[in-house]
Request: fold
Amino acid sequence: TVICKMSCEQAVFAPVINTCFMTFQGVLEGRGGQEIASELSRNFWTVQKGNMAVWAPANLISYKFIPARLRVLFANMVAVFWTLFLIWKTSKRRTA
Reply:
């Protein structure tokens, strides 16, 4: 069912992919393990709540109303805005 698909994605896939993203972004920005772990503990739930606010409705719409052949396009459009939010929320703050 639609609810089951969305729930599985939010409970299993989202936490794993968000943790991986935040970890690898920290590595690419040159942060140490301790700093990455601190950032994860500080921002994980904010990112996860944002993920639920964006992807739960998007997935419900996709599974219920979007034809199967257009779902990838729809998800990619949502993903552009989600990625911008994710980068904004997790990137290292730089001072001028």
